[in-house]
């Protein structure tokens, strides 16, 4: 009945932490462990209830036997008053039988009462252990969740800071710089082409001016 109680004692503390270290999912393992504890406590509570019922039954039998002892003694006294010693003797014999029975029942009742007290003490200890384990579970559960979060963040940061990621960003930066250089070159070419056009426009204007001057000289205006 109390194998579980002994088991609880062995896993409290470092041994439970060792079990959690080996578990794939400590949170699920803790939840399962608490469910097992709850089931065992309910089982012991049922055993205690049955033992209490047995104690009360023995107590009732002791009281009944003692009541019959008193009844037979009263009857024996009445028989003596009536001058019927044989009836009185039979009443006293039955009283002795009930006395022997009461004595035996009293011993059983005392043991049952002691057992109930012990069971209740053990049950209280189990419940205390359970409450302590529940607080430990909540703490370990929070620690496990925190550890998972930190691990996820560290992996994310590691992915960002690794050589491949840095190389990728550097290549992206080079590409952007290349785009910028190409844009500046195209701008220079556009400026260069516009200047060349301006030169041709200027050349065309000089021919027109020369033609006008020649026509003026020849009186052909």
From TrEMBL:
Superkingdom per UniProt: Bacteria
Biased composition (Acidic residues): 198-207
Annotated stretches, region: Disordered: 94-113, 134-207
UniProt feature, compositional bias: Basic and acidic residues: 134-148, 168-177, 187-197
Biased composition (Polar residues): 154-164
Family from the record: Belongs to the PspA/Vipp/IM30 family.
PANTHER family the record matches: MEMBRANE-ASSOCIATED PROTEIN VIPP1, CHLOROPLASTIC, PHAGE SHOCK PROTEIN A
Protein name in the entry: Phage-shock protein
Record organism: Jeotgalibacillus alimentarius
